[in-house]
User: Fold this.
Amino acid sequence: MSEAGAPLRPAVVVISSHVARGSVGNRAIVFALESLGFPVWSVPTVTLPWHPGHGPAPRIVPPASDFSEFMEALSSSKHLGEVGAVMTGYLGAAEQAGPIADFIAELRRVNPEALHLCDPVIGDRGGLYVSEAVAEEIRDRLFSTADIVTPNRYEFAWLTGAEVDSNAAICAAAVDVSARHVMVTSAHAMLAGGTGNLLISGGAAQLAEHRQIENPPNGPGDLISALFLAHLLSGAPVQKALQLATASVFELVASACKRGADELMLETDQESLSRPMAMVQLRQLALASSQRKRV
Assistant:
């Protein structure tokens, strides 16, 4: 505790889905952040018994008016000054984006240094798996104003309208994204049989890559966003935050797959969150001069 009695680390407001079983959405994000010492305010946008990939999953989505009142209550909390960051992910309804954006605006009024990480959970290689209305609200109300964005490359293509057939194309499209840190997951690896996370930040682009693991459990996208944010909040340089987050997720996915698990086993592999041993390849990518001036 500090002399004033406040937590040593800022609280993080996490706004995403919740499942009863599994390590996706808020279940993964909250566990990771709390394991690394961050107090968390958890806000479920939808509650499911498990990830829909495991079978029929009835949804409980809070009524729009109830969700709006909930976010207004957080906005008016006397504890709002504790919050140093907001992480937004999967939305259960398009109507949730507005109250979330209003909350972020109020937080920034109270704490201008607060960060907003937008993980725009809208789709994958098969296209959108949310309604177009939800995707548009995330794009227009959250992605467009965030400090950090962490889409996969298919989401990035939809959100920016850009081609993503190369890392150079991703870097070019990142010029028009207002976020100071753009991390595109499942980027194009240079290693044969690999995959990577591409970070465009501070006039530079780095690719963290490792071997591709077939049929991974769900949740790596939620987890790498949470870990990248946690390392930044802890004061790590962006390249180190990228390296550590990528290594942790690779290690956790590999461990789960080795056991034949259908979910990440965060409770068993908690050490991998804070001290990953996996090696990842970091590469510096060239940016055009116009891109270096923009970011």
About this structure: Residues 46 and 160 are 26 Å apart (CA to CA). The mean pLDDT is 94. The chain is about 35% helix and 20% strand.
